[in-house]
Specification:
Layout lengths: L1 H38 L5 H12 L2 H11 L3 H24 L3 H21 L10 H20 L18 H29 L1 H8 L52 E6 L6 E4 H5 L3 E9 L10 E10 H7 L13 E6 L4 E5 H4 L6 E6 L2 E2 L9 E3 L13 E7 L22 E6 L9 E10 L5 E8 L4 E3 L1 E2 L9 E9 L2 E11 L21 E7 L1
Parallel strand pairs: 1-10
Antiparallel strand pairs: 1-2, 3-4, 4-7, 5-6, 5-10, 7-8, 7-9, 11-12, 12-16, 13-14, 13-17, 15-16, 17-18
Length: 528
């Protein structure tokens, strides 16, 4: 049975080649992570390639990812990159059994791709960011070259490489085990070093004591929060507050090293502020509901929190900035994050008297790292992509004609006031409540306008007024409830809201792109 024996030998060698490729890829990533820990943790190849993919992904695809995977979209992207790298590594390993130099060159090519991605990032620190990808690729290429030489006889019929004797199978397995152990050690060391680099930031947050606000938030009126099972709490706990951003690695910034630069068109007195200087200023405290433009009708990407910060209008005025209505020649405020993200807000909105702020606290504690520590910007009434810059380090005054921020370049609207919306929190879609009295409840929001009415419709019946919770402020959401005498069978529950201007929430369905979703939220339930 010579053919069977030959087939088994081919399969065995292919398996050894695939294993060689995987070990080479693992080694490349581990050495790259160790190098990134010494250079800049955010320059790791998975991070920079993932960031480059995000930057070049069409807005519709990003919207799909957020809608499908929610806050796990970045994890899914990273896992997808690792799976693709593994498949390429397997292919290169098998190829290297016959063409060792070609296989090794393939690994080096990935280093070039990673280096190019690192240089393309808006937060790139220059040529040093290329080192993790390049050094990792060199290590991976060396591993692949050595292991495929040990996997057995190599060579090609056309003489591209001379045949040579491979190591014994035991020798290969020993070399593979040593490679895996070395790579694991390098990866663990890299993670440890990266973690230590963030220790200063963690310590600075732990040591930060927030001053008392000069202007405390008004007391939340009794009755603003309904006691209904399943409804969103009036104040969203920090652990439950939504997070939507493009950062694959959450920046950890030392509060003592943080700086904010204010400059640009119409800034008569450019300034740079430290955190201590901000904390020494009068602080305002407000309950404000934030909303992400990626929130679909009935979606989860909004939350209400108590924010503490510096009034942004006062800070800009100190720098000599005037809004366009008072003769200022800049109509756009561009906020830049430490990771290179840019958001553009209308200067008029920031300085029209609303509580726009540079927030330093959230629900009574310093901002969590995931939500922008040490400082983030927020502007009530605007979707987050044009107002809520996390990890902010730069404010530039310019014009809408002169500059398009990150999301505008990708097809989103330049101006994006939050639309009037409402959501059914309970019962849940496809729920099976018992016949009789069923409490239907949820939230409605129209920041800067407030909510004056919420109505519910059962199937195709008439609209019925709900019971509204007490309104806190026009910048917070408003809870509502409706006692429904539910009959057995399938039913569709629909909700709509009316804002403080008298405008009824639009029935017209629209996707999130370019300026936020619209339409009525409905759920189907089966009453038993």
């Amino acid at each position: 049975m010579p053919y069977v024996s030959s087939f088994r030998t081919t399969l065995t060698r292919a398996g050894l080649g695939a294993l060689s490729g995987l070990l080479a890829g693992f080694s490349a990533l581990a050495v790259a992570e160790l190098t990134a820990a010494l250079v800049r943790p955010a320059a790791g190849p998975v991070t920079v390639v993932g960031g480059a993919v995000i930057d070049r992904t069409p807005a519709q695809v990003k919207d799909f990812a957020i809608r499908t995977f929610g806050e796990n979209d970045k994890l899914v992207l990273q896992l997808g990159i690792l799976v693709l790298l593994s498949l390429f590594a397997i292919a290169l390993g098998i190829l290297a059994l016959r063409y060792r130099r070609v296989g090794a060159a393939g690994v080096l090519a990935f280093g070039v791709i990673g280096g190019a991605a690192a240089l393309s990032r808006p937060d790139s620190s220059g040529i040093a960011d290329v080192l993790p990808s390049v050094v990792g690729a060199v290590a991976g290429a060396a591993v692949l070259y050595v292991l495929t030489g040990s996997a057995g006889p190599t060579g090609s019929p056309n003489g591209a490489e001379r045949p040579r004797d491979g190591w014994s199978r035991r020798g290969f397995l020993n070399a593979a085990a040593a490679t895996a152990a070395a790579a694991a050690t390098a990866g663990a060391l890299g993670r440890a070093l990266s973690g230590r680099q963030g220790e200063g930031a963690v310590a600075s947050r732990a040591a930060l004591t927030l001053p008392a606000p000069t202007s405390p938030a008004p007391v939340v009126p009794a009755g603003a929060g309904l006691k209904v099972d399943g409804i969103s709490p009036f104040t969203t706990p920090v652990r439950d507050f939504y997070r939507v951003d493009t950062a694959l690695v959450v920046p950890r910034i030392d509060a003592g090293a943080w700086r904010l630069r204010v400059h640009g068109k119409g800034v008569a007195r450019p300034r740079t502020y430290t955190l201590d200087q901000l904390l020494a200023r009068p602080l305002i405290e407000r309950d404000i509901t934030l909303t992400c433009v990626s929130n679909e009708v009935g979606g989860p990407y909004l939350g209400n929190a108590r924010w503490l910060g510096v009034g942004l209008a006062d800070l800009l005025a100190e720098c000599g900035v005037e809004p366009p209505s008072k003769g200022g020649n800049a109509d756009q405020l561009v906020a830049r994050s430490v990771d290179g993200m840019t958001l553009g807000s209308p200067v008029e909105d920031v300085m029209d008297g609303r509580d726009a702020m540079l927030a330093v606290g959230m629900n009574g504690e310093p901002l969590p790292f995931e939500h922008g520590f040490p400082v983030r910007m927020l502007v009530p009434g605007l979707y987050g992509y044009v107002s809520a810059c996390k990890w902010i380090e730069d404010i530039e005054l310019t014009t809408f004609d002169a500059y398009d921020p990150y999301w505008v370049k990708r097809g989103w609207a330049r101006r994006a006031p939050i639309k009037t919306q409402s959501r059914i929190d309970t019962p849940k879609p496809f729920g099976r409540p018992a016949a009789g009295t069923v409490v239907v409840a949820g939230v409605a929001w129209a920041q800067r306008r407030g909510i004056t009415r919420v109505e519910v419709r059962i199937d195709d019946g008439p609209w019925q007024d709900t019971d509204l919770a007490v309104q806190d402020t026009v910048d917070t959401w408003r809870q509502w409830s409706y006692r429904w005498n539910a009959a057995p069978g399938g039913h569709t529950i629909t909700v709509r809201a009316t804002d403080g201007t008298g405008a009824v929430q639009s029935e017209q369905r629209a996707r999130t792109i370019p300026d936020g979703a619209s339409g009525w939220h409905s759920v189907f339930v089966t009453v038993t």
